[in-house]
Structure formats: C-alpha cells, structure tokens
Specification:
It contains twelve helices and twelve strands. The protein is an alpha/beta fold. Strands 2-3-4-5-6-9-11-12 form an eight-stranded parallel beta barrel, surrounded by nine helices. Strand 2, helix 2 and strand 3 form a beta-alpha-beta unit.
C-alpha cells in the first residue's frame, strides 16, 4: 500500500470518537513491531520519528524502513516528523518523503509560534504534506524535548482558536497535563478534561493531538527492575484517561516511552535467562514481540482504532 497523510485518518477518528496511535521508531525491530500490530488489528497507524532518533537510524535508512513497512504490510501508513524544531528541519523532511511534519514552536512567544507555523504550513501544503503544531508546553524529558515542570503551560482555548485560524495548521498538539518521558506525575494522575472540552468546542473540526501519553505500564517497569534495571517511581497516564480524551477531539496519541520500556524489559529478560546465547536476533526478536503485544493492547483497549483501517 502507500504512505498517506493523516487527513482521512483524522476525519474518520473525529467522526468515530477514537484515536490513532502515533508510535516513535528507533530501529528496524520497532518498525516491524508496529507494522505487525497494525496488520493484526486492522488499525490505522502513524510511524513517527524525532530528529535524534532519525540521526541514530540515519535519514536514508529511516525513509526506506518506513517505505518497506508500507509495502510489506499491505495497509496505509502516515509518516510523521515528531517535534521538528525549525523550518529547515521540516523542509528537509517534506522533501525526503514524510507525509506529515510537526513544527514545535511551543517554546516561542505566541506571535513567533504563529509565524513559524504559518511558514511551514505554506511550504508543506504546497507539496501535499500536512502539518501539526503545538500550543502550550508539556513538561518532561524525551529525546530533544526538555522542559522543566515550572516552565510548563497549559493550552489556552481562546489562543488555540486564533492559532489555528491564523496558521492554517492541520492538527494541534495541546497541553492538558500529560508529560514527556517515564516520570509524569508525583501524585495522582490528572488531565484537565474541562480545558480539553473548551478547546474542542472552539475548534471542533481541528484534530487534536496528545503528546506525552505513554501509560508507563507497570509490568514493564517491574520486568526491567527484576532483571537488573533501576527505574524507580515511574508513572504514566492511565489508559482510561486516554480513552476518555478521544471523545473530546483527540485524534492522535503519541507513544514512545512505552515502546522503549517494552523493548528493554524483553531484552533484559532474554539475556538474563539465556546466558549462553550471543545471538542478537534472539533478544531483539523478543523485544519486537513484546512491543507488538503492547501496541495491539493499546489499539484495542485504549485507542479504539482496531478494525478501522
């Protein structure tokens, strides 16, 4: 099949009250795991990559891996740049064959964020590529994102409406309490659903995006720690909250940390239990299988995207 934009995916998700998973890739096994899950669940899916991960994979390899996944799987994929930091990064990804790019001007003043987002939209739209932007700042640390909790700001609903109108952006990432990385909450998990509803009310036709939405599934933390890891007090967003958010315009849910945790948990267990083996296919294969299992679970229980491809 083909690499497609998210336009049709998000229109169907808005109408159907579910969300599409956007899964970050870091190596071949992760690409294969996401692909296997999407095929098994007959689910729409977004393969996305940040600049640090793309530099690790190398840009040409990244593009060819995603193209191979679409060809091999027989379903459509969207191919998305996660957290593009500037116009030039987005331009390069558009020219490389990405079908969707995110320009992250959330650290900029409002007017500067509008100007940079509008510039990216003009370039991308002229080439058939869709654009995601971010308004408000999520706390946390993940790849190129590093925002202190004191600097985090929630998305203002009135500003969101103005931002979409003035930029022409296709989807908007909002800050309502989620956080990047594995350490999201010190107390009880909290998402500002009233704020989300107000944003959705003002821009009902704009697909909304939830970053920092990994659940940090406790079984993977426990397995990592049981086999030599030291990952204390990691907490994520309960899957029930993500499912509820899909009813208020959230069409895209980003998942990165859970993928890394599943891979690490499986690799640690395989190496610890099969000490005579030195075959990377065994432990990387175990990681791939556990990621597939985890993503299938999310498509069924959290996103509601199963059977929607």
């Amino acid at each position: 099949m083909a690499l497609v934009t998210t336009k049709d995916m998000f229109r169907k998700a808005l109408d159907g009250g579910y969300a599409v998973g956007a899964f970050n890739i870091n190596n071949m096994e992760i690409v294969q795991a996401i692909t296997d899950a999407a095929v098994a669940e007959k689910s729409p899916v977004i393969l996305q990559v940040g600049t640090i991960s793309m530099n690790y994979l190398r840009p040409a390899y990244t593009v060819k891996l995603v193209e191979a996944a679409a060809e091999d799987a027989g379903i459509d994929f969207a191919f998305h740049l996660d957290h593009g930091e500037d116009f030039e990064t987005c331009r390069k990804c558009v020219d490389m064959g990405f079908t969707s790019v995110m320009i992250d001007g959330s650290k900029l003043p409002f007017e500067e964020n509008i100007e940079m987002t509008r510039r990216v939209c003009e370039y991308a739209h002229a080439r058939g590529v869709v654009v995601e932007a971010e308004l408000g700042k999520l706390a946390g640390v993940e790849d190129s994102v590093n925002v202190d909790a004191r600097s985090a700001t929630f998305t203002d609903p009135d500003q969101a409406a103005e931002f979409v109108e003035r930029t022409g952006v296709d989807s908007l990432a909002v800050a309502i309490g989620t956080s990047h990385g594995a350490y999201k909450f010190k107390g009880e998990p909290y998402l500002d659903f009233q704020r989300l509803q107000e944003i959705h009310k003002r821009i009902p036709d704009t697909p909304l995006v939830l970053h920092g939405a990994s659940s940090v599934l406790p079984q993977y933390i426990e397995q990592c720690n049981a086999y030599g890891g030291t990952i204390p007090a990691a907490t994520g967003v309960p899957e029930s909250m993500i499912k509820e958010a899909a009813g208020y315009g959230i069409c895209k849910v980003n998942v990165d940390t859970d993928i890394k945790l599943a891979m690490t948990a499986a690799v640690r267990k395989q190496i610890a239990e099969d000490t005579a083996s030195f075959d990377p296919r065994k432990y990387m294969g175990a990681g791939r299988d556990l990621i597939t299992e985890m993503i299938r679970h999310k498509m069924q229980a959290m996103l509601g995207s199963g059977g929607r491809a």
